[in-house]
User: Fold this.
Amino acid sequence: MAEKKPNPAPRRIHEVRRTDTPSGVTHVRAHQPDRFTVVGNHLLQHPALSLTAIGLAAHILSLPEGAPVDIRSLAERFPEGRDRIAFALRELEAHGYLRRVRERTESGRIATRTYAHHLPVHVPAVPGPAAAPRARRPVPRPSRDAQAEPQEDDRRAGRAEPAPPAAQVSEAAVTPVTPPAAPARADQLESPADDAALHPRDDRAATLLAGLRRTDARLTLSRRDVHRLAPAVTAWFDVGAGASTVIHTLTSGLPAVLESPAALIAYRLRNQLPPPLPEPTAPPTHPATAPHPMWNCEGCDRGFRAAEPGLCRDCRSGFAAGRAA
Assistant:
């Protein structure tokens, strides 16, 4: 009987290909005839998504049609909590794997419908300074001898003869391709007339509108929109509204999908303008009257104020009680 070694090599699992590095992953694959979900590596190996977002996306793709995927339902299913789930849903929405649209049902209620994309859709990027396009290099035109007959290698490969080249067209009809001009810088996009159109009394309103992106990045307005909406904000200031009131009105209760922030702000400024504050009413003032002069009571010689001389209050009450008796 052979002696057993204290550290024998582990037995090789059948049909499992092991990696060369001990720390590398080894896949133990099994055939799954049903109940599986096909998920692309573009999602599972996404370089920008967090692990929570990737796992949540894989779970959503495995659900049947009509399954609830709102924050409350997912928080009841997983222990991550509403904040982490909401952040992961926003990640998937920003990268085109999820789209939430508010729709009106047949009963008239507003509901949020979630579209899960197995392939990411194009998400419009945030506008920023555009880079200058690369200048096109002139393509060298082949000589007539090279265009007369196809190459010998093409004949051997059995390729079809190319179409008649464009060089046979008269050179007068060919217009030279000029590279596009470099785009203007961000500070040159607006004309000086737009800057001069802002009234000095609207400077405070323009500062408020430009700072809305500190509260929500989706409320980033262009310079033209700021100049156009500044008079409407000044109208709020004219009726007595403060800056905090205007910011709360423009940033609270924003929809999940905000396509046109300038249109939303213009609508709220126009339809939620409060009435002017009523002027404070002063309390009614009574005309000041001079006090009555001082008199000495004829009964007790005590001083009292009255319109005319006579008895004081105590003497009058005692005199009235004696008469009644």
User: Anything to note?
Assistant: Confidence is low (pLDDT under 50) at residues 126-135, 145-177, 183-196. The two ends are 144 Å apart (CA to CA). Strands lie at 98-104, 110-116, 294-296, 303-305. The CA atoms of residues 70 and 318 lie 87 Å apart.
